[in-house]
Amino acid sequence: MKKYIPRTIYAEKLQAYKDKDLIKVVTGLRRSGKSTLLQLFREQLKQEGVAASQIQFYNFELPENFVGKKWDDLYFGIKSKLHKDRPNYVFLDEVQNITEFERLVDGLFASENVDVYVTGSNAFLLSSELATLLSGRYIEISILPYSFQEYLIAREIDTTNAYLNFELLFFEYVNETSLPKGVELREEGYDKIYEYLEAIYLTIVEKDITQRHQIKDKRAFENIIRFVASNTGSAVSPNKISNMLKQDGQNVHRDTVENYLAYLVASFVFYKVSRFDLKGRKQLVTQEKYYLVDPGLAGYLIGKDRFRDRGHILENVVYLELLRRGYKIWTGAGRNSEVDFVCKTKTGDLKYYQVAWEISQESTLNREFGALEKIKDHYPKYLLTTDSFPQSRNGIKHLNVFQWLLGLV
Description:
It is a single chain. 42% of the residues lie in helices and 17% in strands. It has 17 helices and 14 strands. It has helices spanning 8-17, 34-47, 71-79, 101-109, 124-127, 129-133, 148-154, 166-175, 180-184, 190-211, 218-230, 238-247, 254-266, 295-302, 310-324, 362-373, 401-405; strands spanning 23-27, 55-59, 88-93, 114-120, 138-142, 270-273, 275-277, 282-283, 289-292, 328-333, 338-344, 350-355, 381-385, 397-400. Helix 3 (71-79) runs parallel beside helix 4 (101-109) and helix 12 (238-247) crosses helix 13 (254-266). The protein is globular. The model has no long low-confidence stretch (mean pLDDT 91). Residues 23-152 form the AAA domain. This is ATPase. Residues 206-356 form the DUF4143 domain.
């Protein structure tokens, strides 16, 4: 029997918005757990006393649910099964596969006693007519693959064991995959995980991007993906990538590169982080950084060489964790230094995070602390490293990153 790991952060959000006059839109990478989240929520509704006839669930990755059907066929089919005098819960999984899906969603949302939940594997879902049509009437819940904590839970590892080798477990986490199904496959060996990652990647590249946007130069597109994956945590620009391609004999205009990057971000393969001017307190529009949604995908894209830069791997994982915690995130740019992450909380306060693998050398220690010490405000500042015995200084909290990822500090 398949074991479900409770995705507590996301489940609580769904519960909080249940029966509210808002469409719940769950977005995220293919196979990151969106469908499972809705299935668990559906079971929770039944436990709360909602009858099975009040719940309708449609998986639009299955051709039998949509091939040969127009949006209005689906709409009237769903409407015919609704209870007029009781709440109804309608789940539309991978709704972007339906032509004119926004009209289907809008029609159901306007119906009496209907609570609508949709999922999609592409951010264009919300940059399309749906966003205009439903402005102010939906809430987006963006789901990520397993966190380090969820990964350990899935493996049934007791994190209270004082003798655990967290560094080894961390490298297994980033070397394999954080995608739920991939974690299930780990007992069958890495070859199975690799095949699984390959299948997901090819589906995203071919179905979600190449076909949708009619990309002709597939070689250049692939090279861009691998270049960005090789430079996670480093500032890149369309100009820089365009020049790199020219050196390889591929003439791709910077505007085309910019479009390709936008497609990859919209498909949740990469997350783009803008720079923040620490002195001027404003967002900058050049030299963004990109982080990969699943560290395991880097192994598939660029191989084992990526482990030479443990610091950027750790930085990628920290970024995703900050995203899970609901922060708005920038990279901090100062005159002579940079801070890895500037985060704005839901209350509008700031937090600063610097990430390094270790600070055993004095020069590294001074560089990492120094970047934070140059910021003269009184917002919290954190240095996250793998060091076992953190040493805070000048009000900057030095934390063990594994303990931080597990929510223990």
